[in-house]
Design brief:
This protein has 251 residues and is of the alpha/beta class. The chain has one domain: Alpha-Beta Complex (2-enoyl-CoA Hydratase, Chain A, domain 1). 44% of the residues lie in helices and 19% in strands. Strands 1, 2, 3, 4, 5, 6, 7 and 8 form an eight-stranded mixed sheet that branches.
């Protein structure tokens, strides 16, 4: 499959969204709301549940499926309130020593005027800073789209996994083609150059595992096994390993 075909596949109708995975990964999931500052953001679903026998905090970027759902979830593009809600839940997870599992599927953070007025850049930066030192394991899975800082705000993790038909990029191929050549028809060419697919990112050591798409049962088993190993590490070992991960040549 060509790189741009994978980008197209990430948009296709009927694809499993974050809420579909949550329902299978943690049937006992209980959603928590609000950033305790401004409000709640439906683009970010967060709460607690059990994967395997491990209590976790789940944080997900949700797109929705129907037109009504997509409007309510803002097509998965989070406002600052959403990232602050995620940060609040990460801090709560740290307090109770629960691992954090992030499910990422977004074209990017919302770029509206109100989002900028409410501190979009600061909210994303605060997440990155806190995740650098969070004293509990963090595992992120890119389910479909991984768009720029909106995705990175939930990806500064001990383990970063991607579905085989997902992509991660600083910019969309269409925007890249428009910036470089003023021609969106060259999006296919831009996609090849951006190295945004899971196999290319794995070779660059920017992600840690490629997962089979559309198989929540297998994903649950893999997450359980990975978290079991990460929980064996002391806080010092966990943070030092995380630091070294993001200091390697691939980054």
């Amino acid at each position: 499959m060509a790189d741009y075909d994978i980008v197209t596949a990430a948009h296709r109708e009927g694809r499993l969204t974050a809420s579909d995975y949550i329902a299978k990964l943690a049937p006992d999931f209980m959603e928590l709301h609000g950033d305790r500052l401004c409000g709640d953001d439906a683009a970010v679903i967060g709460g607690i549940g059990t994967i395997g026998k491990i209590p976790v905090t789940l944080i997900a970027l949700e797109k929705g499926k129907t037109t009504e759902e997509r409007i309510r979830h803002n097509f998965g593009s989070a406002h600052p309130e959403g990232y602050r809600k995620a940060l609040r839940l990460m801090q709560q997870a740290e307090k109770f020593r629960r691992p954090v599992v992030c499910l990422v599927d977004t074209a990017g953070a919302f770029c509206g005027v109100d989002a900028e007025e409410h501190g979009q850049g600061r909210a994303i930066a605060d997440n990155l800073a806190k995740m650098s030192t969070l004293r509990t394991p963090i595992l992120s899975v890119i389910l479909g789209e991984g768009g720029s800082g909106g995705a990175l705000a939930l990806c500064h993790s001990d383990r970063i996994w991607m579905m085989e038909d997902a992509y991660l990029s600083v910019v969309s191929p269409e925007s890249c083609a428009n910036i470089l050549w003023k021609d969106t028809a060259r999006a296919n060419e831009a996609a090849e150059a951006l190295a945004l697919t899971a196999p290319k990112l794995r070779r660059l050591q920017l992600i840690d595992r490629i997962c089979k798409a559309g198989d929540p049962k297998a994903l649950a088993a893999d997450i359980t096994a990975e978290l079991t190993e990460l929980r064996k590490m002391t806080f010092t070992e966990l943070l030092e390993t995380r630091y070294r991960k993001f200091r390697t040549a691939g980054y």
